[in-house]
Design a protein that fits this description.
By secondary structure, the protein is α/β, with parallel strands linked by helices. It has a domain of 240 residues: 3-Layer(aba) Sandwich (Rossmann fold). The strands form three sheets. Strands 3-2-1-4-5-6-10 form a seven-stranded parallel sheet, sandwiched between helices. The longest helix has 24 residues.
Length: 352
Protein backbone atom coordinates (compact mmCIF):
# COMPACT_ATOMS: atom_id res chain seq x y z
CA UNK A 1 0.00 0.00 0.00
CA UNK A 2 1.36 3.40 -0.96
CA UNK A 3 1.52 6.09 1.69
CA UNK A 4 1.47 9.84 1.08
CA UNK A 5 2.25 12.52 3.67
CA UNK A 6 -0.06 15.49 3.10
CA UNK A 7 0.79 18.73 4.91
CA UNK A 8 -1.94 21.30 5.46
CA UNK A 9 -4.58 18.68 4.75
CA UNK A 10 -7.24 20.26 6.99
CA UNK A 11 -7.44 23.37 4.80
CA UNK A 12 -9.67 23.97 1.81
CA UNK A 13 -7.69 22.42 -1.06
CA UNK A 14 -5.87 19.92 1.13
CA UNK A 15 -9.05 18.44 2.62
CA UNK A 16 -10.64 18.16 -0.81
CA UNK A 17 -7.51 16.40 -2.06
CA UNK A 18 -7.52 13.94 0.84
CA UNK A 19 -11.19 13.09 0.32
CA UNK A 20 -10.60 12.61 -3.40
CA UNK A 21 -7.59 10.33 -2.91
CA UNK A 22 -9.23 8.21 -0.20
CA UNK A 23 -12.35 7.79 -2.33
CA UNK A 24 -10.64 7.19 -5.67
CA UNK A 25 -7.47 5.23 -4.78
CA UNK A 26 -6.05 2.74 -2.28
CA UNK A 27 -3.37 5.19 -1.06
CA UNK A 28 -2.88 5.63 2.69
CA UNK A 29 -2.89 9.29 3.79
CA UNK A 30 -1.03 10.82 6.72
CA UNK A 31 -2.35 14.35 7.30
CA UNK A 32 -0.10 16.80 9.17
CA UNK A 33 -1.83 20.08 9.95
CA UNK A 34 -1.21 22.83 12.48
CA UNK A 35 -4.96 23.57 12.68
CA UNK A 36 -4.80 27.34 12.37
CA UNK A 37 -8.05 29.30 12.04
CA UNK A 38 -8.59 28.10 8.42
CA UNK A 39 -7.70 24.47 9.04
CA UNK A 40 -10.53 22.50 10.54
CA UNK A 41 -11.12 18.79 11.01
CA UNK A 42 -14.84 19.34 10.41
CA UNK A 43 -13.87 19.14 6.74
CA UNK A 44 -12.72 15.53 7.19
CA UNK A 45 -15.01 14.33 9.97
CA UNK A 46 -16.44 11.56 7.76
CA UNK A 47 -13.01 9.90 7.65
CA UNK A 48 -12.54 9.57 11.41
CA UNK A 49 -11.55 5.96 11.97
CA UNK A 50 -10.89 5.31 8.28
CA UNK A 51 -8.26 2.53 8.02
CA UNK A 52 -6.18 4.50 5.47
CA UNK A 53 -6.31 7.91 7.14
CA UNK A 54 -4.16 9.22 9.99
CA UNK A 55 -4.17 12.75 11.40
CA UNK A 56 -1.34 14.38 13.31
CA UNK A 57 -1.57 17.94 14.61
CA UNK A 58 1.71 19.74 14.16
CA UNK A 59 3.81 22.32 12.35
CA UNK A 60 5.84 21.74 9.18
CA UNK A 61 8.55 23.88 10.82
CA UNK A 62 8.99 21.20 13.52
CA UNK A 63 11.75 19.15 11.89
CA UNK A 64 11.85 16.63 14.72
CA UNK A 65 8.16 15.88 14.32
CA UNK A 66 8.33 15.69 10.53
CA UNK A 67 11.40 13.44 10.59
CA UNK A 68 9.61 11.13 13.01
CA UNK A 69 6.56 10.91 10.77
CA UNK A 70 8.70 10.23 7.71
CA UNK A 71 10.56 7.46 9.55
CA UNK A 72 7.36 5.95 10.96
CA UNK A 73 5.17 5.97 7.85
CA UNK A 74 7.81 5.80 5.05
CA UNK A 75 5.77 7.80 2.51
CA UNK A 76 6.35 7.50 -1.21
CA UNK A 77 5.27 11.13 -1.71
CA UNK A 78 5.02 14.35 0.29
CA UNK A 79 2.38 16.83 -0.88
CA UNK A 80 2.77 20.27 0.63
CA UNK A 81 -0.43 22.32 0.93
CA UNK A 82 0.60 23.93 4.23
CA UNK A 83 0.46 27.71 3.84
CA UNK A 84 -1.08 30.93 5.00
CA UNK A 85 -3.07 31.92 1.94
CA UNK A 86 -5.27 35.01 2.31
CA UNK A 87 -3.91 38.21 0.73
CA UNK A 88 -5.87 40.53 3.03
CA UNK A 89 -4.44 38.83 6.11
CA UNK A 90 -0.93 39.08 4.69
CA UNK A 91 -1.37 42.85 4.37
CA UNK A 92 -2.65 43.01 7.93
CA UNK A 93 0.14 40.86 9.36
CA UNK A 94 2.85 39.55 7.01
CA UNK A 95 5.07 37.88 9.61
CA UNK A 96 2.95 34.75 9.92
CA UNK A 97 3.14 34.28 6.16
CA UNK A 98 6.93 34.46 6.23
CA UNK A 99 7.12 31.99 9.11
CA UNK A 100 4.83 29.38 7.56
CA UNK A 101 5.33 29.80 3.83
CA UNK A 102 9.07 30.48 3.80
CA UNK A 103 10.60 29.22 7.05
CA UNK A 104 8.14 26.34 7.33
CA UNK A 105 8.77 25.19 3.77
CA UNK A 106 12.54 25.34 4.40
CA UNK A 107 12.27 23.11 7.48
CA UNK A 108 9.97 20.70 5.66
CA UNK A 109 12.41 20.47 2.75
CA UNK A 110 15.30 19.82 5.14
CA UNK A 111 13.41 17.01 6.87
CA UNK A 112 12.42 15.45 3.55
CA UNK A 113 15.96 15.76 2.18
CA UNK A 114 17.29 13.91 5.21
CA UNK A 115 14.68 11.16 4.82
CA UNK A 116 15.40 10.83 1.10
CA UNK A 117 19.17 10.67 1.67
CA UNK A 118 19.26 8.47 4.74
CA UNK A 119 16.26 6.15 4.54
CA UNK A 120 15.45 5.93 0.83
CA UNK A 121 19.15 5.90 -0.10
CA UNK A 122 18.16 8.01 -3.13
CA UNK A 123 17.01 4.80 -4.81
CA UNK A 124 13.23 5.15 -4.64
CA UNK A 125 12.51 6.30 -8.17
CA UNK A 126 8.84 6.86 -7.31
CA UNK A 127 9.40 9.33 -4.47
CA UNK A 128 8.13 12.86 -5.12
CA UNK A 129 7.87 16.12 -3.19
CA UNK A 130 4.94 18.06 -4.68
CA UNK A 131 4.72 21.71 -3.69
CA UNK A 132 1.37 23.45 -4.20
CA UNK A 133 1.65 27.12 -5.15
CA UNK A 134 -0.36 29.91 -6.74
CA UNK A 135 -0.56 31.98 -9.91
CA UNK A 136 -0.19 35.10 -7.75
CA UNK A 137 3.60 34.65 -7.77
CA UNK A 138 3.58 35.88 -11.38
CA UNK A 139 2.14 39.29 -10.51
CA UNK A 140 -0.52 41.07 -12.55
CA UNK A 141 -1.42 40.78 -16.23
CA UNK A 142 -2.74 43.47 -18.54
CA UNK A 143 -5.76 42.94 -20.72
CA UNK A 144 -4.05 40.27 -22.81
CA UNK A 145 -1.64 37.41 -22.28
CA UNK A 146 -1.40 34.43 -19.95
CA UNK A 147 0.88 33.10 -17.24
CA UNK A 148 3.05 30.22 -18.44
CA UNK A 149 5.58 28.14 -16.55
CA UNK A 150 8.34 30.47 -17.81
CA UNK A 151 6.66 33.75 -16.82
CA UNK A 152 9.06 35.74 -14.57
CA UNK A 153 8.00 36.00 -10.93
CA UNK A 154 6.74 39.44 -9.88
CA UNK A 155 4.77 39.06 -6.62
CA UNK A 156 2.91 42.15 -5.40
CA UNK A 157 1.59 41.17 -1.94
CA UNK A 158 3.27 39.77 1.16
CA UNK A 159 1.33 36.54 0.55
CA UNK A 160 2.49 36.09 -3.04
CA UNK A 161 6.04 37.11 -2.12
CA UNK A 162 6.14 34.42 0.57
CA UNK A 163 4.81 31.81 -1.86
CA UNK A 164 7.33 32.88 -4.50
CA UNK A 165 10.09 32.43 -1.93
CA UNK A 166 8.91 28.91 -1.12
CA UNK A 167 8.75 28.05 -4.83
CA UNK A 168 12.35 29.16 -5.25
CA UNK A 169 13.42 27.03 -2.28
CA UNK A 170 11.79 23.96 -3.81
CA UNK A 171 13.51 24.67 -7.13
CA UNK A 172 16.86 25.07 -5.35
CA UNK A 173 16.51 21.76 -3.51
CA UNK A 174 16.02 20.00 -6.84
CA UNK A 175 18.93 21.69 -8.60
CA UNK A 176 21.32 21.65 -5.63
CA UNK A 177 20.51 18.37 -3.88
CA UNK A 178 18.69 16.40 -6.57
CA UNK A 179 15.55 16.11 -4.43
CA UNK A 180 12.78 14.87 -6.78
CA UNK A 181 10.45 17.84 -6.58
CA UNK A 182 7.40 18.99 -8.52
CA UNK A 183 5.70 22.39 -8.30
CA UNK A 184 2.19 23.36 -9.36
CA UNK A 185 0.85 26.91 -9.69
CA UNK A 186 -2.93 27.08 -9.76
CA UNK A 187 -5.53 29.74 -10.44
CA UNK A 188 -8.32 30.75 -8.02
CA UNK A 189 -9.96 27.67 -6.52
CA UNK A 190 -13.59 27.45 -5.46
CA UNK A 191 -15.85 24.69 -4.23
CA UNK A 192 -16.97 22.92 -1.02
CA UNK A 193 -15.26 23.41 2.34
CA UNK A 194 -13.68 26.81 1.59
CA UNK A 195 -13.15 29.01 4.63
CA UNK A 196 -15.60 31.96 4.57
CA UNK A 197 -12.93 34.67 4.26
CA UNK A 198 -12.63 33.99 0.50
CA UNK A 199 -14.86 35.72 -2.04
CA UNK A 200 -17.41 33.05 -2.96
CA UNK A 201 -18.29 31.69 0.51
CA UNK A 202 -18.13 35.20 1.99
CA UNK A 203 -20.66 36.50 -0.52
CA UNK A 204 -22.91 33.46 -0.08
CA UNK A 205 -23.05 33.66 3.71
CA UNK A 206 -23.48 37.44 3.77
CA UNK A 207 -26.28 37.18 1.20
CA UNK A 208 -28.15 34.58 3.24
CA UNK A 209 -27.86 36.71 6.37
CA UNK A 210 -29.04 39.89 4.65
CA UNK A 211 -25.66 41.58 5.02
CA UNK A 212 -23.89 43.80 2.46
CA UNK A 213 -21.99 42.00 -0.31
CA UNK A 214 -18.64 43.84 -0.46
CA UNK A 215 -16.97 44.26 -3.85
CA UNK A 216 -13.47 45.75 -3.85
CA UNK A 217 -12.92 48.86 -5.98
CA UNK A 218 -14.96 48.76 -9.18
CA UNK A 219 -15.18 44.96 -9.18
CA UNK A 220 -13.36 44.64 -12.51
CA UNK A 221 -10.35 42.70 -11.23
CA UNK A 222 -10.25 39.45 -13.20
CA UNK A 223 -9.41 35.95 -11.99
CA UNK A 224 -9.24 32.56 -13.68
CA UNK A 225 -11.54 30.20 -11.72
CA UNK A 226 -10.76 26.52 -11.12
CA UNK A 227 -13.14 24.05 -9.45
CA UNK A 228 -11.30 22.46 -6.55
CA UNK A 229 -11.92 18.84 -7.58
CA UNK A 230 -10.49 19.58 -11.03
CA UNK A 231 -7.42 20.87 -9.18
CA UNK A 232 -7.24 17.63 -7.15
CA UNK A 233 -7.43 15.55 -10.33
CA UNK A 234 -4.61 17.62 -11.80
CA UNK A 235 -2.40 17.09 -8.75
CA UNK A 236 -2.90 13.33 -8.88
CA UNK A 237 -1.99 13.44 -12.57
CA UNK A 238 1.17 15.47 -11.89
CA UNK A 239 2.25 13.12 -9.12
CA UNK A 240 1.86 10.15 -11.43
CA UNK A 241 3.41 11.51 -14.62
CA UNK A 242 5.12 14.84 -14.01
CA UNK A 243 8.82 15.24 -14.81
CA UNK A 244 10.86 15.87 -11.67
CA UNK A 245 12.16 19.39 -11.23
CA UNK A 246 9.43 20.87 -13.39
CA UNK A 247 6.52 23.24 -12.80
CA UNK A 248 2.96 22.74 -14.04
CA UNK A 249 0.35 25.49 -14.26
CA UNK A 250 -3.24 24.50 -13.47
CA UNK A 251 -6.05 26.75 -14.67
CA UNK A 252 -9.78 26.48 -15.10
CA UNK A 253 -9.85 28.53 -18.31
CA UNK A 254 -12.74 30.63 -16.98
CA UNK A 255 -11.83 34.29 -16.56
CA UNK A 256 -14.42 36.31 -14.66
CA UNK A 257 -14.38 39.74 -13.04
CA UNK A 258 -15.11 39.80 -9.33
CA UNK A 259 -18.33 41.70 -9.97
CA UNK A 260 -19.42 39.11 -12.54
CA UNK A 261 -18.81 36.34 -9.99
CA UNK A 262 -20.84 38.17 -7.34
CA UNK A 263 -23.72 38.83 -9.73
CA UNK A 264 -23.74 35.18 -10.82
CA UNK A 265 -23.88 34.07 -7.19
CA UNK A 266 -26.80 36.43 -6.57
CA UNK A 267 -28.64 35.07 -9.58
CA UNK A 268 -28.15 31.47 -8.44
CA UNK A 269 -29.46 32.35 -4.98
CA UNK A 270 -32.42 34.14 -6.55
CA UNK A 271 -33.24 30.85 -8.24
CA UNK A 272 -32.44 28.38 -5.46
CA UNK A 273 -33.43 30.33 -2.33
CA UNK A 274 -35.28 33.57 -3.21
CA UNK A 275 -35.39 36.43 -0.72
CA UNK A 276 -38.63 36.64 1.22
CA UNK A 277 -39.28 40.17 -0.08
CA UNK A 278 -39.01 39.06 -3.71
CA UNK A 279 -36.04 41.35 -4.41
CA UNK A 280 -32.79 40.14 -5.96
CA UNK A 281 -29.73 39.50 -3.81
CA UNK A 282 -28.01 41.96 -6.15
CA UNK A 283 -29.64 44.69 -4.05
CA UNK A 284 -27.13 43.85 -1.28
CA UNK A 285 -24.00 44.58 -3.40
CA UNK A 286 -21.88 47.47 -2.11
CA UNK A 287 -18.58 48.78 -3.46
CA UNK A 288 -15.84 49.21 -0.85
CA UNK A 289 -12.32 50.61 -0.78
CA UNK A 290 -9.96 48.55 -2.91
CA UNK A 291 -7.19 46.37 -1.54
CA UNK A 292 -3.71 48.00 -1.62
CA UNK A 293 -1.70 46.72 -4.57
CA UNK A 294 -4.67 44.77 -5.92
CA UNK A 295 -3.54 42.77 -8.97
CA UNK A 296 -5.74 43.52 -11.99
CA UNK A 297 -5.83 40.22 -13.83
CA UNK A 298 -4.65 36.62 -13.51
CA UNK A 299 -4.98 34.08 -16.33
CA UNK A 300 -3.31 30.68 -16.51
CA UNK A 301 -2.06 28.93 -19.62
CA UNK A 302 -2.22 25.24 -18.70
CA UNK A 303 -1.25 23.98 -22.17
CA UNK A 304 1.77 22.10 -20.80
CA UNK A 305 -0.36 20.09 -18.37
CA UNK A 306 -3.06 19.48 -20.96
CA UNK A 307 -0.74 18.34 -23.73
CA UNK A 308 1.93 16.39 -21.85
CA UNK A 309 -0.21 14.77 -19.12
CA UNK A 310 -3.63 14.81 -20.81
CA UNK A 311 -5.48 16.67 -18.05
CA UNK A 312 -8.55 18.77 -18.73
CA UNK A 313 -10.94 20.49 -16.28
CA UNK A 314 -14.22 18.59 -16.11
CA UNK A 315 -16.36 21.39 -14.69
CA UNK A 316 -17.37 24.57 -16.44
CA UNK A 317 -17.65 27.67 -14.29
CA UNK A 318 -21.44 27.41 -14.52
CA UNK A 319 -21.62 23.77 -13.39
CA UNK A 320 -18.94 24.14 -10.72
CA UNK A 321 -20.46 27.28 -9.23
CA UNK A 322 -23.93 25.75 -9.11
CA UNK A 323 -22.53 22.71 -7.26
CA UNK A 324 -20.71 25.06 -4.89
CA UNK A 325 -23.80 27.14 -4.07
CA UNK A 326 -25.88 24.01 -3.52
CA UNK A 327 -23.23 22.60 -1.18
CA UNK A 328 -23.14 25.74 0.96
CA UNK A 329 -26.93 25.87 1.13
CA UNK A 330 -26.95 22.27 2.36
CA UNK A 331 -24.01 22.65 4.78
CA UNK A 332 -24.58 25.89 6.67
CA UNK A 333 -23.87 24.06 9.93
CA UNK A 334 -20.33 23.37 8.70
CA UNK A 335 -19.84 27.09 8.13
CA UNK A 336 -20.98 27.86 11.67
CA UNK A 337 -18.65 25.25 13.15
CA UNK A 338 -15.48 26.28 11.30
CA UNK A 339 -15.84 29.93 12.32
CA UNK A 340 -14.53 29.58 15.86
CA UNK A 341 -15.54 33.06 16.99
CA UNK A 342 -12.28 34.78 16.06
CA UNK A 343 -13.46 35.61 12.54
CA UNK A 344 -16.63 37.56 11.84
CA UNK A 345 -16.19 38.15 8.09
CA UNK A 346 -14.89 41.63 8.85
CA UNK A 347 -12.80 43.60 6.36
CA UNK A 348 -9.06 43.03 6.66
CA UNK A 349 -6.01 44.27 4.80
CA UNK A 350 -6.68 47.95 4.23
CA UNK A 351 -3.02 48.67 4.89
CA UNK A 352 -3.76 51.58 7.19
Amino acid sequence: MKTWLVTGGAGFIGSNFIRYILEQTKVQIVNLDKLTYAGNLESLVNFNGHPRYFFIQGDIADQTLVKGLLHQYQPQSVINFAAESHVDRSIEGPEGFIQTNVVGTFHLLEAVRGYWNEELKKQDDEFRFLHISTDEVYGSLGKTGYFTETTPYAPNSPYSASKASSDHLVRAYFHTYGLPTLTSNCSNNYGPYQFPEKLIPLILLNALEGKPLPVYGDGQNIRDWLYVLDHCRALKTILKGGNIGETYNIGGNYEKSNLEVVHTLCDLLDELLPRSDGESYRQQVVFVKDRPGHDQRYAIDSTKLQTTLRWQPEETFATGLRKTVQWYLENRVWCQRVCDGSYHRERLGLGE
